[in-house]
Specification:
This protein has no helices and 8 strands. The protein is an all-beta fold and 115 residues long. The protein has a single domain, classed as Jelly Rolls (Sandwich), CATH 2.60.120.10. Strands 1, 2, 3, 4, 5, 6, 7 and 8 form an 8-stranded antiparallel sheet that branches. The two termini are 18 Å apart.
Length: 115
C-alpha cells in the first residue's frame, strides 16, 4: 500500500510523525515526486535493510537514537543529529543495533535512473 504524503502547509514535529513498531522497519513518506523523495523511517532494534544499491545518492540523517550504516563494507555509527551521504551505486546496509529513526532523501539528476 502506498503511503500518502504529509499534508502541505501544516506544521509537524519530524520525530513524532513515525512510531516504532516491534520487529519492524516503518517508512512514512513526507513528500514523493518523480524528481526525488523524503521519507521518515523507524527501525526497531535488530532490524536492517541489507545489501541495497541505489542508482541515486541518498542523504540519511538520524533524528532519534543511533544507527549503523555500512557502505562498501565500511561501518559508520551515526547518532541523533548526524548525517551521511551514501553515493549512488554503492552497496549499503542500514542496521539497528538499537532502535532509531531517520530521514532518507534523494533528488534525481537528469542522468539518474529510477531511484
Amino acid at each position: 500500500m502506498k503511503s500518502p504524503e504529509l499534508e502541505k502547509s501544516k506544521t509537524f514535529i519530524i520525530v513524532e510523525i513515525i512510531e516504532y513498531v516491534p520487529n519492524s522497519v516503518v517508512i512514512k513518506t513526507i513528500i514523493k515526486k518523480t524528481t526525488g523523495s523524503i521519507s521518515a523511517v523507524s527501525f526497531d532494534s535488530g532490524e536492517k535493510l541489507a545489501g541495497r544499491i541505489s542508482p541515486c545518492d541518498t542523504f540519511i540523517q538520524i533524528i532519534d537514537g543511533k544507527a549503523e550504516i555500512i557502505i562498501d563494507n565500511k561501518s559508520t555509527i551515526l547518532e541523533t543529529g548526524q548525517a551521511i551521504i551514501i553515493s549512488a551505486n554503492t552497496i549499503n546496509t542500514i542496521q539497528a543495533n538499537e532502535r532509531f529513526k531517520m530521514l532518507s532523501s534523494y533528488i534525481k539528476s537528469a542522468n539518474d535512473e529510477d531511484c
